[in-house]
Amino acid sequence: MNSTEPATPPGVRVVALGGGHGLHASLSALRKVAPDLTAVVTVADDGGSSGRLRRELGVLPPGDLRMALAALCGDDQWGKTWSEVVQHRFRSEGELHGHAVGNLLIVALWELLGDPVAGLDWVGRLLGAHGRVLPMASVPLDIQAEVELDGRITTVRGQVACALTPGRVRSISLLPPDPPACPQAVTAIEEADWVVFGPGSWFTSVLPHLKVPELAAALQSTAARRVVILNLAPQAGETDGFSPEKHLEVLREHAPWLSVDAVVADEGVVGDVRALEKAAWSLGGRLVLADVAAGDGSPKHDGPRLATVLDEIFREKR
User: Could you give the dihedral angle defined by the CA atoms of residues 22, 185, 210 and 290, in that order, rounded to the nearest 10 degrees?
Assistant: First the structure.
């Protein structure tokens, strides 16, 4: 970055929507360039440690929230250590097997404080998180997908089942269908300067936010500009065979009211640039092609590269 160019405007407020590894990737980049950062995280996980805690204690599934907090940890020894601690999973022959330390810590604070947002804020303070993490809804959610397989349409329920279905996911909905949004998440979107969608599991981490009525209303009314970060590869079982432009078409089908300002795609994975430009234009946005993939060949975003591109977008240099 040229030292004579202005940095990301001080105080710029950014809200990132998503869940799981995709949100972890965007937050790892955004925390370097966004001084006021809020993650709004899906709460539909029903597998693994999160699913067990959800079923046993009736709490929000903490796993995606934990991953978001870990991504916001600093690069100093304190941040790196706590990031490893909250991500650590027990290995045993007993009941603790597979549980993540951070999941148990988050749920313990929820039980003590009786307030999911306050609990997450306390964990964030302990970790020295560079931003805030909020659930997208105040109650646990289930994802219900309409799936096409061998010419037949069936309904699949549950995040894990939707992610692993052998069929093609056509659309998703939420159960309950009109869940209460987290009030602080609604406020964050209303007051944001930028809202970032993706990357991540398209049907189970990114699109669910658009199906929470209060969040959708806030996304419609906010003056914030919007960025979509596309995945580097289709996800097995969920978006098999999807081109980059297909991801945008599905986004428009689920939220025809949504407009975006920029679509970020890695130049190495785009086969038809014109088709992707057209898909971005259909949402009102411009295509930003850049080298944002990790150098090891894996379908993961490189944090510093993605941070540079997002910083340039926020400064209107791209």
Answer: -40
